[in-house]
């Protein structure tokens, strides 16, 4: 069976799945275009509009319209809708990705607590300052609703890893003593928005981060596929708690249309040892010990075998002894 069999919509994360930095990830564009399944794109990035994201993706050769892009600010607007009246005022911490969506709703963007906003929405933008965080804090002390586009603690930039929106939200939380509603991954609103917009009955989320892409899709019972071209690699997958375990693990998106080999499990009755094999890769589990017997011809085969050996154990990961060769995958 292929990962895309029975799927009527691909929901794809961006950085680490479609592109990395300024360049498309090898094989990603060709695999998406050739999948035969409609594609949409989910992003927690609140700094860009859907049109800007679509233009960026189109520059790689993908056929993308703005309506194919689901952003965390769009999901945030749905959360705000029950709190903000027509032509109401919303204090914005963030940039154009948020203000463009507020304009579509006919609401007013304000930047100061003294303008008596009906709600606060907070998302990342490079220009966000202490003053912006302070104004949000002052407004929230009146008890008005607070929505965050996402809670990503970090974000990748050209120079390395930088603080993300979650870090800035935490600063406001420290001042006001409460937490916001969250719209983006891994929370349900962005996934519910995507399912509703495209009318998909069997979508699949494709991502590279277990704590956002995979966990969020699992919460709403979507199929999940983790690709090893981005952030989380073998070590994170092997140690993943149940809510962060994907249905499929692939090396790159070319495997969307390939037959997916289910790990073979063999119990040795005389010893109680269990062997897990994918291709030539073989992993043995003996009680709470897991060791690599034979690496596969493909790295991903070894990762899959190791994951199943750990995930199907009766032991908690913290009580298991994982062989050095597996930890170094």
Automatic annotation (TrEMBL):
Molecular function GO labels: phosphatase activity
InterPro entries in the cross-refs: HAD-like_sf (IPR036412), HAD-SF_hydro_IIA (IPR006357), HAD_sf (IPR023214)
Key words of the record: Hydrolase
Keyword Aminoacyl-tRNA synthetase among record annotations: no
EC number: 3.1.3.41
Classification via Pfam families: Hydrolase_6, Hydrolase_like
One GO CC term on file: cytoplasm
UniProt name for this protein: 4-nitrophenylphosphatase
Organism: Agrococcus casei LMG 22410
Organism phylogeny: Bacteria, Bacillati, Actinomycetota, Actinomycetes, Micrococcales
